[in-house]
Amino acid sequence: MKKNKILNIAKWLWLLIVLLGAGYYFVKHREMVAALINNITISQFLLSIFFLLIAKMLIGEITRLSVETEGWRPPYLKMLGIYSITSLAKYLPGGIWHFVGRFSTYRLNNLTNKQSTKAMIVENVWLISSAVAVGSAFYCLFQFESVSKLLNLPYREYSSYLSAALIAAVWILGLTLFNRFFCTQNLNYGLLTGKLILICVLAWILIGLSFIMLFNDLSFNLIGTSVGGYALSWAVGYVAVFAPGGIGVRETVLAAIFSVVAPPEQIAVYAAMNRIVWVVAEVLLGLVFSFQDKGLLKKGNIQAASADPLDADGDTISSTKDGGIV
User: Fold this and answer.
1) How many CA atoms lie within 13 A of 139 on its CB side?
2) What angle in degrees, to the nearest 10, is found between the helix axes of 264-292 and 42-68?
3) Half-sphere exposure of 44 (CA within 13 A, CB side)
4) For residues 18 and 112, what is the distance between their CA atoms, to the nearest angstrom?
5) For the whole model, what pTM was predicted?
6) Which of 10, 36, 151, 193 could form a disulfide with 242 if both were Cys (CB 3.0 to 4.6 A apart)?
């Protein structure tokens, strides 16, 4: 209890520090900030939102696959709606309410406490590991010279490809083993791993494109750097439990990673605009599904599937015809 209280205080202090720091920075450099913002066109902003929305839809499928490993098979649109609506709760004070909302929804749909927790662990392992792997691989491919200088490694022309291939191989092997031994209810773990690789790589490419759309000068190298840099900054921000939504942490890592291609001051402005893009995209998805189905987070129509009403945890079990919600 004491640890939770300290963590909550730390989150509020961090948020206050970030807001004050950002406010001071933008006031001090208001002319440069205004110029950069004015250079971002409406079409760039809309394209940024579009790419992020598609990426969010792919993440909704990752969420659906995570609950499938525990035996619940909801329709894709229903799971995307649950993901979209509960994601809005992360903007509430405390920074944990999106997890609470997701957990409660899983329980309402007949997953036990253990199954709900396990599904959320699976989803987070998939997301964080993919962000680190895809981010590292892309950054090595497009900025290996900078990486070699930072780590004091010898630079060779083929080193970037070799490093990216090694990172990809380690991730694929780790993902396969994780799915094999942790996702025990999914017998076809090879197919699951293949789906995840495709979805995760595509999702991070789209998220990187969403960020780079705010820039005025685009190049193939800059796009690749954006995919790698943004995925890595997201992963660092996500695991920074003291920073709600990774605020401040993600932007700091972005500025450091992109310092090889643009001034940190410029990246800070684009990072702030990208925060707005994320809020707009998440609110749009949340509102669409809130109006579409007001009973989305409620318990579905359940039919008993077994004479034994209790599982190993003492929780009531039942299912629908397709194993999920009607």
Assistant:
1) 25
2) 60
3) 17
4) 38
5) 0.80
6) 10
